[in-house]
Design a protein that fits this description.
Elements (H helix, E strand, L loop, with lengths): L8 E5 L4 E3 L6 E2 L6 E3 L4 E8 L2 E8 L23 E2 L10 E6 L11 E8 L6 E6 L11 E7 L2 E2 L3 E3 L3 H6 L12 E3 L3 E2 L5 E5 L8 E8 L11 E3 L14 E5 L3 E6 L7 E3 L6 E3 L5 E8 L1
Parallel strand pairs: 3-6, 7-8
Antiparallel strand pairs: 1-5, 2-4, 5-6, 8-9, 9-10, 10-11, 11-12, 11-13, 14-23, 15-23, 16-20, 17-18, 17-23, 19-20, 21-22
Length: 289
């Protein structure tokens, strides 16, 4: 770069590979380490006078850092092993920590705990997550978490992360549970009529139900009200006021009672069992498999 008066700046762009060798007097480099330049890298060098230079800035074309930070230059909490502590209340900065019998650990974890701290930008706000790495199993991962808000630590609470822990919370079935559902569109209630409704479940449904939905106010019911139907409702006379549902692997096969009022339901007031007005209601069928 030559001999120039002190303070003069040179702006450099490298056209190919080159090695800059650090020298504490003649060529002072960032990080006091040699730099292997590549095409497209740029640098700003300042003359110190007498042919001596300091590189004030070096930017790689790749966007990578000039040098990798060595493990020795990292704080213990970010090192190759977790930082050992004796009190979890002192683990405040981002990083990894561990301690055996450390104060303020989860009461259930009396041995070794290893964990992380996530610190917020504002003082007094952070989260700690720890687990007993010696005794942790799939059935009990021994993971605990607590949060600090405004400098005050909350209580530790347990976290269940493994599949085994999740499975243990629920009743397990050896057979397939209901996994598919079908709901028909509203169907017109036609005295003596039949309906063949393709349910698309692929198998014969295990559970099915019929409801009627009010479309015009009737028997004190309002539009939108829904009433479950007893399919084989008995009446006090010889008329047939009921429906039958016969499912198969493809369809719900429905037959509607022949009476002009095809169904009887309890009035919304509960005062009587009363004939519906067919045109004031629509049938809807649901099935599960």
């Amino acid at each position: 770069m030559g001999v120039l008066p002190s303070g003069v700046l040179r702006f450099l762009t490298f056209s190919g590979a080159a090695t800059l060798t650090h020298n504490a007097a003649t060529l002072i480099l960032p990080g006091a380490a040699n730099i292997v330049a590549a095409a497209g890298d740029t640098a700003v060098a300042q003359s110190l006078g007498g042919g001596n230079w300091r590189v004030r800035s070096y930017i790689r074309a790749s966007g990578q850092p000039v040098a990798v930070i060595s493990d020795a230059n990292l704080p213990a909490r970010l090192g190759v092993v977790a930082k050992t502590i004796t009190d979890w209340n002192t683990a405040l900065d981002n990083g990894w920590y561990m301690g055996s019998g450390a104060a303020n650990a989860p009461a259930a974890n009396t041995g070794w705990n290893i964990g992380t701290v996530e610190a917020h930008g504002a003082a007094g706000y952070r989260t700690q997550t720890v687990y007993d790495f010696v005794n942790a199993t799939a059935a009990n991962t021994t993971i605990w978490r607590r949060c600090q808000n405004g400098g005050v630590w909350g209580a530790w609470f347990k976290i269940q992360w493994s599949q085994a822990e999740q499975d243990a919370r629920y009743v397990q079935s050896s057979t397939a549970l209901l996994q598919k559902a079908y709901e028909s569109a509203q169907q017109t209630i036609t005295a003596g009529g039949t309906l063949t409704l393709a349910h698309g479940l692929g198998v014969k449904p295990k559970l099915y139900i019929a409801v009627i939905q009010c479309t015009t106010a009737d028997l004190a019911y309002s539009i939108g009200d829904e009433v479950a139907i007893n399919p084989m409702l008995n009446t006090t006379d010889a008329t047939v006021q009921a429906i039958s549902m016969v499912p198969d692997t493809t369809n719900l096969n429905v037959r509607i009672g022949a009476n002009s009022s095809s169904l009887r339901i309890m009035a919304k007031s509960g005062a009587s069992l009363t004939n519906i007005t067919n045109t004031s209601w629509r049938l809807v069928f649901r099935a599960w498999a």
